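Researcher: I'm comparing several assemblies side by side, and this is the next one on my list. It has 344 residues spread over two chains. Same procedure as the others: predict the full complex and return the structure.
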Amino acid sequence: MKEWPLWEVFIRSQHGLAHKHVGSLHAPDAEMAINNARDVYTRRNEGVSIWVVKAADIVASSPGDKALLFEPANSKVYRHPTFFPIPDEVKHM
Amino acid sequence: MLLDDKFEYLLRLGDNALILSQRLSQWCGKGPAFEEDMALTNTALDLIGQARMWLSYAGEVEDRGRDEDALAFLRDAHQFRNLLLLEQPNGDYAVTIARQFYFDTWHCLLLQELNKSADSRIAEIAEKALKEVRYHLRRSSDLVVRLGDGTAESQRRMQAALDDLWMYTGEMLTPDEQDELLAAQNIVPDPAILREPWLQYVGSVLRETKLTMPTGTWMQKGGKLGRHTEHLGYVLAEMQFLQRAYPGAKW
């Protein structure tokens, strides 16, 4: 088991449009990763579709780059679409 | 008379699910990997659900006031009607998987036929169970191939497990009087019609691997009539302890 790679699991729920990250697991290959994801993460009727991705194939931003990547957006409130009155007829936005 | 036969047959179905579920539950927390542990206990839970459906229907058919719990916890070994295969000890993981693979193959074929039963309640339960059992079969077939094609050691163990349990497979595929009586009413299939597809499927999975299909022709039998191996008593002792020591206890 030690040599089984780690997989990240994404589940699309009954009503959700997008797959959401739910956790990870170990499996020797993709087929078994799907089976294991079914058994570990969909026991309570959580999903209608499963994606698995080898954790090693995910490229992540570095925590050290947080300031560089994200802080400049803090001071730019005008990028949020909160300055427009929404007509009453538009129920869901 | 017909009702008695149906009751007996429902016990076979319920006891198969119940005893295998109990066996699989013994792996809980001890699986070879966390993911396997979950998968196996999921299977155990599916089977306990099926056992409840079969045994509660059995209780209704018998009509002597016994519910699913009374049938599960208050019968002794000679009153159980499960296949001998299913009470065999878990052994190593190869043994557990071989037992599962032989049973799942047969279970799937049987439920497909029971789904056409003249008894609508049997057909309904079979339909529900079939969805679960198709997954069980996919999983156990996959693991047989993986262990069979894994290391020299896993292949040796998988082959030994398939060989050791082979003599318990005849019971599933050989009709007895009860089977024939109910088959004549179109309530259950004649087990003989499951034989060819069973051999074919088991063979097709094993052919994908370096494993060879056992060929022995001497078969054990007796479970369907209540003549069990010594192992069942221990399974029941553990499973029934609470209700025996504290009758009627609820939690």
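Model: For your comparison table: DSSP finds eleven helices and no strands in chain B.
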